[in-house]
Design a protein that fits this description.
Blueprint: H1 3-13, H2 18-30, E1 32-36, E2 45-46, E3 50-53, E4 56-62, H3 65-72, E5 78-82, H4 83-90, E6 95-99, E7 108-110, H5 112-123, E8 133-137, H6 144-155, E9 163-171, E10 176-183, H7 190-203, E11 212-216, H8 221-229, E12 231-234, E13 258-259
Parallel strand pairs: 2-13, 4-6, 10-11
Antiparallel strand pairs: 1-4, 1-5, 3-4, 6-7, 8-9, 9-10, 9-12
Length: 260
């Protein structure tokens, strides 16, 4: 059982549970998918193999390389891509996903409208505001689903910040809320971290939920207040240079692949 199998089983067991369905789509977006291609990738250009089914066209994706090999039964070209990249590439084209078809408990068709919804949800950027916290308090009343979602998201954000604090805050003007504060974020990491926090909120299934995201340096006075009152999340240490091979097509957000 892979993580995708697990969340798929939970979704199938409780078809009316929106939270279970959201967890499945979050895992689909965050995980690596092996996309079956018509031919070998040419640089950043991919040509997926498209299958016409009764319910419409689909491309085939698998959450493990050996599952793709089992389905095809022979060597075949493929691309390893994050699920969010696959959704973004297919959005608006009327193409669904054939997921692990015939080779896993999570075998299913993700229809084109669900792929479009996922791409749109992942593309929703958080809005920016300016507010100064006057008081930092321990977080209160937050659902376990949000804490679990944040923990999972930040575990995949190694090297983007040293750590983060979740705390309740009172702002100038009297507004109250909760804040996820990142400490010593890397240059250019603010956008990805803010989107990760927004996705954790969205996919935790909280109705009308709201959480502010802020960035501070460890030497700022507010960081000490956050350390005293906040719930701390440690982000993994960044990998050392040269410890990992170059990323495959689609893993570098500055060089997104293209579909042919």
């Amino acid at each position: 059982m892979t993580p995708l199998d697990t969340v798929h089983a939970a979704m199938e067991t409780a078809p009316e549970d929106d939270a279970a369905r959201l967890r499945f789509y979050e895992r689909l977006a965050d995980g690596e998918l092996f996309l079956l291609l018509e031919s070998e990738a040419e640089g950043e250009t991919l040509t997926p193999r498209v299958f016409s089914l009764e319910d419409g066209d689909v491309v085939l994706v698998f959450d493990r390389e050996d599952r793709l090999a089992e389905f095809v039964g022979a060597p075949a070209p493929y691309a390893a891509l994050p699920g969010r990249v696959v959704a973004r590439l297919l959005a608006g084209q009327g193409i669904g996903l054939g997921l692990n078809l015939g080779v896993a408990p999570s075998s299913m068709i993700v229809p084109a409208d669900a792929v479009d919804w996922l791409a749109q949800t992942l593309g929703n950027a958080p809005s920016e505001i300016e507010a100064r916290p006057e008081e930092v308090l321990p977080p209160k009343g937050l659902p376990e689903a949000l804490l679990t979602a944040l923990d999972a998201k930040l575990a995949r954000a190694g090297g983007l910040a040293r750590f983060a604090y979740l705390a309740a805050v009172r702002y100038e003007g009297g507004r109250h809320g909760h804040m996820l504060a990142f400490i010593d974020a890397a240059d250019g990491a603010e956008g990805p971290l803010a989107r990760a926090a927004a996705e954790a909120l969205t996919f935790s299934g909280i109705e009308a939920g709201e959480m502010d995201v802020a960035f501070f340096k460890a030497h700022e006075p507010v960081a000490a207040s956050l350390a005293r009152a906040g719930l701390r999340f440690d982000l993994p240490e960044p990998e050392l240079p040269g410890s990992a091979p170059p990323p495959p097509p689609g893993m570098d957000p500055t060089k997104p692949p293209k579909l042919r």
